[in-house]
Amino acid sequence: xxxxxxxxxxxxxxxxxxxxxxxxxxxxxxxxxxxxxxxxxxxxxxxxxxxxxxxxxxxxxxxxxxxxxxxxxxxxxxxxxxxxxxxxxxxxxxxxxxxxxxxxxxxxxxxxxxxxxxxxxxxxxxxxxxxxxxxxxxxxxxxxxxxxxxxxxxxxxxxxxxxxxxxxxxxxxxxxxxxxxx
Length: 182
Prior knowledge:
Blueprint: E1 21-26, E2 33-38, H1 39-47, E3 50-51, E4 57-58, H2 61-64, E5 68-71, E6 78-81, E7 90-95, E8 111-114, E9 121-124, E10 126-129, E11 135-137, E12 146-149, E13 152-163, E14 166-175, E15 180-181
Parallel strand pairs: 3-5, 4-6, 5-7, 6-8, 9-14, 10-14
Antiparallel strand pairs: 1-2, 7-13, 8-12, 10-11, 12-15, 13-14
């Protein structure tokens, strides 16, 4: 197999297994080094959950996209700001009670998820529970760039980059107060 281009190798396609090896080049911007990784190690590393900060912070594609983002118990109202969406980029948010010292009950503080600018919007819907009759809440898709989770007790939100200006969202929020979009 020496002197064979990677593009000339035979694909194993659907027969791929977690123990199969991939060739990677580590530290591309510094001192590039050839290394190996199993498909299982690769998949696990890129999908490991991320515990979010307990203070207002900006999320990144490298650290947060494609992963479960655990919302911890927060000591004050906070805002998590998303990067500019790229078609296909995903974010998932859940409350992390028990796993990371997250919410054990309805938090006494609001959590917001905001787009990178007021010209990037949310589209889709979320289900609000925690009240007598659950309701579906929609952002308007053309002006709403902040999702306000008011005193959340439990959350599971998915965000999907549709374009450079739209985050599609879906999921649910359990809280005594109805979430809003601004």
